[in-house]
């Protein structure tokens, strides 16, 4: 049995992050600590496991902030196009 089945958690994909975006997300987590500590903890966890890169060295297949991606929902077959933005831009 795989480790993810034993714990009930799905394995999370790797994260590569542009270093300046890491600083912005850290500041966001800090602002959330008092009023939404669970979300702040989730952000800190993701930041801890992220591989930081400069904008010039980020892998070309990485979705970064303000990128638009298209995906297909495997259950419904629906196509969606979304942009990854910070909460204040949502």
Description:
The chain has helices spanning 3-7, 19-32, 37-49; strands at residues 16-18, 51-53, 68-72, 79-83. It is 36% helix and 18% strand. Helix 2 (19-32) packs antiparallel against helix 3 (37-49). It is of the alpha+beta class. It has three helices and four strands, in the order H-E-H-H-E-E-E. The strands form two sheets. The chain has a two-stranded parallel ribbon. The protein has a two-stranded antiparallel sheet with strand order 3-4. Residues 1-5 have low confidence and may be disordered. Strand 3 and strand 4 form a beta hairpin. It is globular and about 40 Å long.
Considering DSSP H and I runs of 4 or more, what fraction of the residues is helical? 25-40%
Order of helices and strands: HEHHEEE
Average pLDDT over all residues: 89
Q: Classify the secondary structure makeup into a structural class.
A: alpha+beta
Distance from N terminus to C terminus (CA atoms, Å) equals 40 Å
Radius of gyration: 15 Å
| Outline type | globular
- Which ranges are low-confidence, i.e. pLDDT below 50, for 5 or more consecutive residues? 1-5
Q: Spatial order of the strands in the main sheet?
A: 1-2
The number of helical segments is 3
**Strand content range:** 15-25%
Largest sheet: 2 strands, parallel
- Strand elements, count: 4
């Amino acid at each position: 049995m795989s480790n993810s089945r034993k714990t009930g958690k799905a394995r999370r994909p790797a994260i590569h992050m542009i270093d300046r975006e890491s600083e912005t997300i850290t500041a966001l987590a800090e602002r959330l600590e008092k009023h939404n500590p669970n979300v702040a903890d989730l952000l800190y966890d993701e930041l801890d496991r992220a591989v930081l890169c400069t904008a010039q060295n980020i892998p070309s297949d990485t979705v970064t902030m303000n990128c638009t991606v298209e995906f297909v929902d495997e259950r419904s077959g629906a196509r969606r196009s979304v942009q990854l933005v910070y909460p204040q831009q949502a």
